[in-house]
Design goal:
The complex is a heterodimer. Chain A is mostly helical. Chain A contains 14 helices and 4 strands. Chain B has one domain: TusA-like domain (Translation Initiation Factor IF3), CATH 3.30.110.40. Helix content of chain B is about 35%, strand content about 30%. The longest helix of chain B is centred in the middle third of the chain and has 13 residues. The chains are: A mainly alpha, B alpha+beta. The interface between A and B is medium-sized, with 29 and 19 residues.
């Protein structure tokens, strides 16, 4: 099965993944968070007790499904390769940046597209930052950036992340050890079986199509190649149709209930950091989960970095707050990015520049 | 034959190195990659540049042999 040899097949992959996201939103996931990697990693980190924000704790089966779906399809189609050794600690830091930047914007690149399809103009503003971040990463690549070679390693190493995800699923299903939100976004979710199946399907199609939100824009800038952008385009169209059909399309900036804020500069800078870090890490948060599923221990380190980054974003007060409506007074409270979050984004961008322009391919023969 | 060793490198480095090599080398080029999707990306890049290639599986990945420029 090869989904990358024609634009029609790539568009089909985006269509299927869009249908999965729409389905999960319809059956209970927060509407504009239908399938957000950063939010769901943050929720899962909360379920494991890595942070204590009670409204965002839930072991999201979608994350587990993505990794397991990629693992199963790559094993079945002989694409599973256990590899490791390409600057794992640098990738860990890039994972932290991916999570922190996302939680300042309030969404990963996947959720940015979902929010854009719902008319959230803040996400369109953030797209500017994301494109600029990817563009800066491309400049680093052209100047010879590389994190060095990964090497084939013991088969078991690549299987650790899928097994850990399976472990979280078992804990969620068979014990009461994991935390689960009683209110807030963490309490809103589709039935477990549906979320898991959705994650498995999404993971399998993302693996076979190489779906990547940063990669799609990177390829356009770097090689004028629109293949990966085709997937994102069809995903956007499906979500747009879903949002219009269900009355969730609202073209505006201040949209209480959407889990967004209108601090434009920080929406731009948050996604700038994410775009930049994603190019340096070789893929967006979604792609990192997929690569971790197909055996890359380096991407697994990025995923662990995202868990720690998400936990820190809440423990240290870096994550933005969303614009909210008081149901009694009907007053709108504007969402905002705390000072700690602003400082963190600046540090994240500075770290991206250091990583991007000091790691050269010539050092890694 | 010129050889490009892109084994273990992250995307899009294998494609970038292949493009670089095709610019400077009109003769045959052998590109080594680790992952199946990198093999496909390199093949696509070669075809986009109007050249032909054949791929074989190696012990630790794939070898894409690019034919000389016509």
């Amino acid at each position: 099965m090869n989904l990358t040899d024609s634009k029609k097949k790539l568009a089909l992959a985006g269509l299927v993944c869009g249908l999965v996201a729409a389905c999960l939103a319809y059956f209970g996931n927060p509407a504009n968070m239908a399938f957000c990697i950063a939010c769901f990693i943050r929720d899962t980190a909360g379920a494991l007790g890595l942070h204590s924000t009670e409204t965002v704790q839930y072991a999201r089966p979608e994350i587990i499904g993505l990794v397991l779906g990629a693992f199963l399809i790559s094993a079945a189609t002989k694409e599973y390769r256990s590899t490791a050794g390409s600057s794992p600690m640098v990738r860990f830091v890039l994972g932290m940046i991916l999570a922190i930047g996302s939680l300042v914007f309030l969404g990963c690149p996947l959720r940015m597209i979902i929010r854009m399809s719902a008319g959230d103009l803040n996400a369109w503003v953030a797209l500017i930052g994301f494109i600029l971040g990817v563009g800066t990463g491309v400049i680093a690549l052209k100047k010879g950036f590389s994190l060095g070679r990964a090497h084939l390693t013991n088969r078991m190493s690549g299987g650790v992340m899928p097994v850990l995800m399976l472990g979280i699923l078992v804990l969620a299903l068979a014990t009461t050890l994991l935390k689960s939100s009683q209110s807030g976004p963490g309490s809103m979710h589709a039935p477990i079986a549906l979320s898991l199946i959705g994650g498995l399907i999404f993971g399998a199609f993302a693996q076979k199509s190489r779906m990547c939100f940063a990669g799609s824009i990177r390829d356009v800038i770097l090689m004028r190649n629109f293949d990966l952008l085709t997937i994102i385009g069809s995903f956007f169209v499906v979500m747009l149709i879903y949002n219009v059909a269900t009355g969730n399309f609202n073209l505006a900036f201040n949209t209480p209930g959407v889990i967004a804020h209108s601090e434009h500069l920080w929406n731009i800078l948050g996604m700038y950091a994410v775009g930049f870090a994603a190019v340096l890490a070789g893929g967006c948060p979604l792609r990192q989960l997929i690569l971790a599923g197909q055996g890359s221990s380096d991407s697994a380190m990025t995923v662990i970095g995202m868990f720690i980054g998400a936990a820190l974003a809440h423990n240290l007060g870096l994550a933005a707050s969303a614009t909210a409506l008081n149901p009694e007074t009907q007053e709108i409270t504007a969402g905002s990015v705390p000072l700690n979050g602003k400082a963190a984004v600046i540090i994240c961008i500075a770290v991206c520049f250091i990583i991007g322009f000091l790691n050269k391919r010539s050092e890694n023969k | 034959m010129k050889e490009v060793d892109a084994r273990g490198l992250s995307c899009p480095e294998p494609v970038m190195l292949t493009e670089e090599a095709m610019k400077s080398e009109a003769g045959a080029i052998r590109v080594l990659v680790t992952e199946p999707h990198q093999k496909m990306n390199v093949e696509k890049c070669v075809w986009d540049h109007g050249r032909n290639c054949t791929s074989t599986e190696t012990e630790d990945g794939f070898a894409v042999v690019i034919e000389p420029k016509k």
